[in-house]
């Protein structure tokens, strides 16, 4: 199973159709025609619906991390769970229908994975004030009171990834690949670049984004990721960090093929079955512990004291971490410990948007 280094202080460490399927654990297309869904029955009265971002369960990254939290809730809290998958290029009405289907089938809470759901969550939650909703990676000033935002300090974990990249680069030239040029992914970029430059202010950092909104295919196109990574390798980068969902799998393939260092994201990607063959060249992964946030939220609902408002999971709370699979960063543990301690103490302030 995955090992992760939790860096804190000085420690490196629809309706009837859906309900019927939930009872038998089958798979089906949703009534909107825009997604497929999987149901699983638990032993308690708690019914949790999860609507995935594009890529869904099996992306080896962000959605899989959320899925681990849902699995834990099913196994440890006896929750009945239902998973609804999204498709690339779907309309906003598809997202809304997916959430409505979960609500009409009695799922409460409903968890939306990803900032692309913000408008849909706001609308459906407003129409269903007795249902609790959570959204991952987004918060809006006008969201209803029955919506909880689960956010993360991605810039902090990315800063540490940048420190690791700079310390391991022999070419003094590294890269960053973002899936979609959004405010969220810019947090990854900003932290990473700041971490690199904390080690060497003169080190060159290549930055490539695969798509810009409203095109979100940059999160689900390994071919684009591979091409972008190859471009950065050709320019001389020898450590490349990808924050691009399953597109990052292509980047990892290219980097590993060139015998350089790749840095994964969201999950411990060296431990993911589809990527283990590249594990010798995955330096580390900036793990965003979405599973921790998902489980804590579901647990709070079950206990009758639900997390409300905006709950941020930072480095100190274990919301972000660096994976240690393979032992590739063991030799720089001291430097990473020191960097982590400065972040958690408040001594190091990390930007959340690219500088300059």
TrEMBL record:
It holds the Pfam family Bmp. It is a lipid-anchor. CDD domains: PBP1_PrnA-like. It is found in: Cell membrane. The keyword Ubl conjugation does not apply. Residues 1-22 form the signal peptide. Coiled coil: none annotated. Transmembrane segments: none annotated. SUPFAM superfamilies: Periplasmic binding protein-like I (SSF53822). Residues 49-351 form the ABC transporter substrate-binding protein PnrA-like domain. Its main location: membrane. Keywords: Cell membrane, Lipoprotein, Membrane, Signal. Belongs to the BMP lipoprotein family. This is BMP family ABC transporter substrate-binding protein. It comes from Kitasatospora terrestris. The lineage of its organism: Bacteria, Bacillati, Actinomycetota, Actinomycetes, Kitasatosporales.
């Amino acid at each position: 199973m995955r090992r992760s280094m939790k860096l804190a202080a000085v420690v490196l460490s629809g309706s009837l159709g859906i309900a019927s399927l939930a009872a038998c654990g089958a798979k089906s297309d949703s009534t909107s025609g825009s997604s497929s869904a999987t149901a699983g029955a638990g032993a308690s009265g708690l019914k949790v619906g999860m609507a995935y971002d594009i890529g869904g369960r099996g992306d080896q990254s962000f959605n899989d991390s959320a899925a681990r939290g849902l699995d834990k809730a099913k196994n440890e809290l006896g929750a009945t769970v239902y998973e609804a998958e999204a498709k690339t290029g779907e309309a906003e009405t598809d997202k809304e229908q997916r959430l409505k289907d979960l609500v009409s089938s009695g799922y409460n809470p409903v968890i939306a994975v990803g900032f692309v759901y913000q408008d849909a969550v706001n609308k459906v939650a407003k129409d269903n004030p007795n249902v609790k909703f959570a959204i991952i990676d987004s918060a809006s000033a006008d969201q209803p009171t029955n919506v909880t935002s689960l956010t993360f300090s991605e810039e902090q974990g990315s800063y540490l990834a940048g420190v690791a990249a700079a310390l391991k680069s022999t070419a003094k030239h590294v890269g960053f690949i973002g899936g979609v040029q959004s405010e969220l992914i810019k947090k990854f970029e900003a932290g990473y670049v700041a971490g690199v430059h904390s080690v060497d202010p003169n080190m060159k950092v290549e930055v490539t984004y695969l798509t810009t909104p409203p095109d979100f295919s940059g999160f689900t196109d390994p071919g684009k990721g591979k091409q972008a990574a190859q471009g950065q390798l050709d320019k001389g980068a020898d450590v490349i960090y990808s924050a691009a969902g399953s597109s990052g799998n292509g980047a990892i393939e290219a980097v590993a093929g060139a015998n350089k260092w790749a840095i994964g994201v969201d999950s411990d990607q060296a431990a993911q079955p589809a990527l283990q063959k590249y594990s010798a060249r995955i330096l580390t992964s900036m793990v965003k512990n979405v599973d921790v946030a998902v489980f804590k939220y579901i647990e709070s609902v079950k206990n009758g004291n639900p997390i409300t408002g905006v709950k941020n999971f930072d480095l100190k709370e274990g919301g972000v971490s660096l994976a240690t699979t393979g032992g590739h960063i063991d030799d720089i543990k001291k430097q990473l410990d020191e960097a982590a301690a400065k972040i958690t103490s408040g001594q190091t302030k990390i930007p959340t948007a690219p500088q300059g």
